[in-house]
């Protein structure tokens, strides 16, 4: 089956050199959600842009969300028909409920929805992500019904992590695609 990979960046966008941008340039059938304000995100505005982008895609969608976008996707999934979503790779979720871990400009994405997702998903975190503890990421994965991967000490899995095409992430994505195929 043909899927569209939907790249959903978090705070500040995933620009040149970020693995999400590399995947966008490298993989066919890839689209990106573009937000009007990357640095002062408002949940309702971001939800509208995510929803509008999803509505333009004809094929089943595999979401590839990073950081703040993980909360965005879970909010969207609680409020909308998710039948077009084949699965989701939820990378480096930011704990928007923690003033210790995240900046104030993203707290309006709290509370993080805890309902089980209606599609296969994988949560990936790193053991030294400054925006969430491993325990919190694993808790969220359990609540969402997601598989959970801790990829070791690699920071926030962002541009600063220097992941390039992030081959490890591609392998986990392949695993997700296989599990989607098995669930059809």
Any low-confidence stretches, pLDDT <50, length ≥5? none
Alpha carbon gyration radius: 15 Å
Task: Give the biggest beta sheet.
Answer: 6 strands, parallel
**CA-based shape:** globular
Strand order of the largest sheet: 2-1-3-4-5-6
How do the helices and strands follow one another from N- to C-terminus? EHEHEHEEHEH
Q: How does the SSE layout of this entry go?
A:
Layout: E1 4-8, H1 19-26, E2 30-32, H2 43-55, E3 61-66, H3 68-79, E4 85-91, E5 121-125, H4 134-144, E6 147-150, H5 167-182
Parallel strand pairs: 1-2, 1-3, 3-4, 4-5, 5-6
Helix pairs in contact: 2-3
Task: Give the gist of this structure.
The chain is of the alpha/beta class. The protein is built from 5 helices and 6 strands; from the N terminus they run βαβαβαββαβα.
